[in-house]
Design a protein that fits this description.
By secondary structure, the chain is mostly helical. The chain is built from 12 helices and no strands. The protein has one domain: Orthogonal Bundle (MetI-like fold), CATH 1.10.3720.10. The longest helix has 41 residues. It is a multi-pass membrane protein. Belongs to the binding-protein-dependent transport system permease family.
């Protein structure tokens, strides 16, 4: 007896790409390449000396001038340290106030809670430029001009406004049963915030941390007005002054002849970008998760 076996090939479920899909993929690829070109040029130019920058501007030149980074660090190092100090202190205070404020408005009942909450959120609609001159006059009267406190206090005062808005949405999404169980075990308010709210709100806190840190790192006009001492200046203002010095008058200790300052200048830009890159690498997962969750819960 002979048996015959027939093999059936399952039809492919993969649909062929249509013309508009191919076009959209090509468009996205071109946009991605265009967005990467400035980064490529920034890194490439940071390794060139004056002659390489002039005659081989668009290609990678050898040998790589690692000394540009040493020269750049001598200029921007103090600016970066100042910015990290201000950003870290302001960030820690802002996250703490945002977490506490979000818990208060999400889980505690008191008279005029909603009215007070919307009054705080309404401050988001006030353009910062309207309070710029009054804030400057207040800090001058308090004797805080040319001090790091004039950079930290605005972060503690203005940062929690958006932070409360975001954290209230996160904390409101935490099941009430968790808080009730903790209260039955004798947990107080600080226990509820530290042991339940904080661990479950890490994506929201990471989102706030990234947004706040980027804002402080890129702040320009307020530090430019408040800080006259160059030893206390922020990185954005420092890079601006460095670029102007390199363009118009040269930089002390650098070779200003024949494009010699451009390599160290671009190296300074790369160094100034590294903390933001590292921050997003560390908190990127929580940042994206926080943005998605906040959009759903709000």
């Amino acid at each position: 007896m002979s048996t015959t076996t027939s093999t059936q090939v399952a039809p492919s479920t993969r649909r062929p790409l249509r013309y508009y899909q191919i076009g959209s993929h090509l468009f996205i690829t071109v946009m991605l390449l265009l967005s990467l070109i400035p980064t490529y040029l920034l890194i490439t130019w940071s390794f060139k000396n004056g002659l390489q920058y002039r005659w081989e501007r668009w290609a990678i030149s050898f040998p790589l001038r690692w000394s540009n980074y040493g020269a750049a660090w001598e200029i921007v190092g103090d600016y970066m340290i100042n910015t990290i100090i201000v950003a870290f202190i302001g960030l820690m205070g802002m996250l703490l106030l945002s977490l506490i404020g979000g818990y208060v408005f999400a889980r505690m009942d008191f008279p005029f809670r909603e009215t007070l909450y919307y009054a705080i959120i309404a401050l988001l609609m006030v353009p910062w430029v309207l309070s710029f001159i009054p804030a400057y006059m207040v800090y001058v009267r308090l004797g805080l001009l040319n001090t790091r406190l004039s950079l930290i206090i605005p972060e503690l005062a203005g940062g929690p406004i958006f932070g409360i808005f975001l954290m209230r949405a996160f904390i409101a999404g935490i099941p009430e049963e968790l808080f009730e169980s903790a209260r039955c075990d004798g947990a107080g308010v600080l226990d509820l915030i530290g042991r339940i709210t904080l661990p479950l709100s890490l994506p929201g806190l990471a989102t706030l941390a990234v947004l706040n840190f980027i804002g402080v790192w890129n702040s320009f006009l307020w530090p430019l007005v408040m800080i006259q001492d160059d030893a206390k200046q922020m990185i954005a203002v420092g890079l601006y002054k460095l670029a102007r010095s390199a363009t118009y008058g040269g930089v002390a200790g650098w070779t200003s002849q024949d494009f010699g300052v451009w390599g160290p200048l671009y190296a300074g830009y790369v160094i100034a970008s590294l903390p933001l890159v590292l921050l997003f690498i560390v908190l990127g997962k929580f940042y994206v998760e926080g943005l998605v969750d906040s959009g759903i819960k709000v």
